[in-house]
Amino acid sequence: MFAVITPEKIQLPAGSVVRLPGSWQDYQALTEQLGDRSIPRIKYRPGEILLMSPLPRHGREAHVIAMVVIALLDHLGRDYEAFTPITMELPEISGIEPDYCFYIDNWADVAGKDRINWGIEPSPDLVIEIDVTSYTDVNDYLPYRVPEVWLYKKNQLQIYQLQSDRYTVVTSSRFFPNINVSAFITECFRIASERNTSVAIRELRQKLASEN
């Protein structure tokens, strides 16, 4: 199967990434053409448009990590709002679709809203990105000043925090400072692989409850 990108049709093989020169107007035309389709994913950087068709493992890994985050937030009694899919856009500057995002400190600002006015209302507090195809760059979130980005790549979690005007790798999450998030995620992936995701998350919740 070959990549096909025409005014009538957009079709990419699973796992492929296509980079095109393009303007903000070109990006808008492609997003309108895609409509409500979640595949392929689309991203805009000044002068460049990227299209990516994710592999099945992409969605599975995003789901597992998001479920770990939800279990940890519930354990801590934290309120939150979560979104997937969602398109973040700053005209002429950026367009991006995170795999999963959470509002934790700022959940009340977006609760119940159908649309978010990027650049005026707060950006997500936490973004989760899965990189299977070298499509992801944490610096894509700099224009939005997302405080924390989790990047899962090659079976490893890296936590990036916004410090001044750049992202820096850190060892712990600002939202879970006393929790070894990477260890929990690694264990959940092991159990999910051997059995299934529901068992992995159920056992995580039981472990958290036993530590109270």
UniProtKB/TrEMBL annotation:
<dbReference type="Pfam" id="PF05685">
    <property type="entry name" value="Uma2"/>
</dbReference>
<keyword id="KW-0378">Hydrolase</keyword>
<dbReference type="InterPro" id="IPR008538">
    <property type="entry name" value="Uma2"/>
</dbReference>
<protein>
    <submittedName>
        <fullName>Uma2 family endonuclease</fullName>
    </submittedName>
</protein>
<dbReference type="GO" id="GO:0004519">
    <property type="term" value="F:endonuclease activity"/>
</dbReference>
<feature type="domain" description="Putative restriction endonuclease">
    <location>
        <begin position="24"/>
        <end position="182"/>
    </location>
</feature>
<keyword id="KW-0255">Endonuclease</keyword>
<dbReference type="InterPro" id="IPR012296">
    <property type="entry name" value="Nuclease_put_TT1808"/>
</dbReference>
<keyword id="KW-0540">Nuclease</keyword>
<dbReference type="InterPro" id="IPR011335">
    <property type="entry name" value="Restrct_endonuc-II-like"/>
</dbReference>
